[in-house]
Each structure stands twice: as C-alpha cells, then as structure tokens.
Amino acid sequence: MPQLNPNPWFFIMTSLWIIFLLIMQPKSSAMYFPNPPSHKTKSTLKPLPWYWPWT
User: Keywords of this protein's UniProt record, alphabetized (predicted)?
Assistant: First the structure.
C-alpha cells in the first residue's frame, strides 16, 4: 500500500508547515480589524416593570 510509505508524504507535510509558518502566518497576523474594540463605560440600565394587560 502506498499510504504506508511516509517518505513522500512526510516531506510534503513538513514543506507545507514551513510555508505556512514562514509565509502565511505573518501575513495573517498583519491583518487588522476595521472596527477595533473600544472601551465603553459600563452603564447598567434599570429594567422597567412589566405591566400585564389583564391585571
């Protein structure tokens, strides 16, 4: 069975990981969010009482 021979597949796997770690990862880390999270003041809203129409 050719699947049991790790020789070509191990090279392909390691080369893809090297490509990912050296080329793709810095490009994806350099992306920025268009709307960065902002610090908002925490304000708690007082809930309004619920008035049932049949009471």
Answer: ATP synthesis, CF(0), Hydrogen ion transport, Ion transport, Membrane, Mitochondrion, Transmembrane, Transmembrane helix, Transport
Query: Tokens 């597949």 label which residue?
Result: 9
Q: Where are the alpha helices (DSSP H) in the chain?
A: 6-19, 25-29
pLDDT digits (tens, 9 = 90+) for 29-48: 777 767 777 777 667 778 88
C-alpha Rg value of the chain to the nearest Å: 28
> Where exactly are the structural domains of the chain?
1-30
Sign of CA dihedral 10, 15, 17, 18: positive
The C-alpha angle 7, 2, 16, rounded to 5 degrees, equals 45
